[in-house]
TrEMBL record:
Pfam families noted in UniProt: Myosin_head
Start and end residues of each Myosin motor domain: 33-300
Species assigned in the record: Strix occidentalis caurina
UniProt keyword annotation of Magnesium present: no
The protein's name in its UniProt record: Myosin motor domain-containing protein
GO molecular function: actin filament binding; ATP binding; microfilament motor activity
Bilayer-crossing regions: none
Amino acid sequence: ENGQKEDSIIQNDLSESFEEEVRAFLSDEEKLHLFDDLTKVNPVTTTTVLKCLQARYTVNLFYTNAGCSLVALNPFQPISCLYSPELMREYHVALRPQDLKPHIFAVAEQTYRNVQSQLDPVNQSIIVSGESGAGKTWTSRCLMKFYASVAASVISPKGNETVERIEKRVLDSNPVMEAFGNACTLRNNNSSRFGKYIQLQLDRFHHLSSASIQTFLLEKTRVAYQAPNERNFHIFYQITKGATAEERLEWNLPEGADYRWLPNSERNLDEDCFEVTRDAMFHLGIDCSTQNNIFKVRYK
Ligand SMILES: Nc1ncnc2c1ncn2[C@@H]1O[C@H](COP(=O)(O)OP(=O)(O)OP(=O)(O)O)[C@@H](O)[C@H]1O
Ligand SMILES: [Mg+2]
């Protein structure tokens, strides 16, 4: 019994001294935003980690390392210069990109260098995960833009059109995938209702040569059923809002008609951008007549 009592006294002392450490760490509020790597936080508790991230957020620092992982916070507003071509270049030419401020470009560049530094071809994967609205789609777009820029194929003096178009095509896959697979939900106006595995292939000069995208778990039931205050896939709003009078006739979409599959269409979102989707489809090689067939609404 005495032994147990002593154990519990020691436990209490330990937990008190631990709490004291946590308090001492948090008391230096001015310094919390300086922790650019969460492995340097001591003691590591949910509170200390979250307080550091919060302190960084308030001074517009949205990226923090956690060892070899990167924690990205969603700023929920455009941050000027955070994704500029100049910054991409800075990370690309840096002697040690990991020594620069934590950023998605540091991860992108390190991954690119890992591919380059091997004699035999080696694959690298970047896993982007997080809850709905965390910024996964945004981050994937940033990564693709980065590679489209730094691994751009060298354009031959005569201007080899096929090679020139690859980077653009890779980027154009995003608006198309999002138009057909994303929808406005309660958590995210542009919520991806599917998972995707994007593979970017490089040639032996480490230039982008091709890409493939596999999708999985597309939430097809959303076409027929949407929860209250949620919307169907963006494409339906894009065609009904963006079609010309002629196209409406051809696609069986009379003006002013009420569609059961088009809830909450009075809301106009940035995502209702038919032209962007159409342009991207053209660049991907989907011609006018194929597009027509896709957009035509068939009643059966
Ligand atoms: N780094 C960022 N800078 C500015 N805005 C951002 C950033 N990351 C995310 N956002 C904003 O947050 C919104 C939601 O992000 P995103 O669509 O990438 O989330 P997600 O993780 O893909 O969610 P879901 O799982 O629902 O698809 C974006 O449409 C954008 O407005
Ligand atoms: Mg998404």
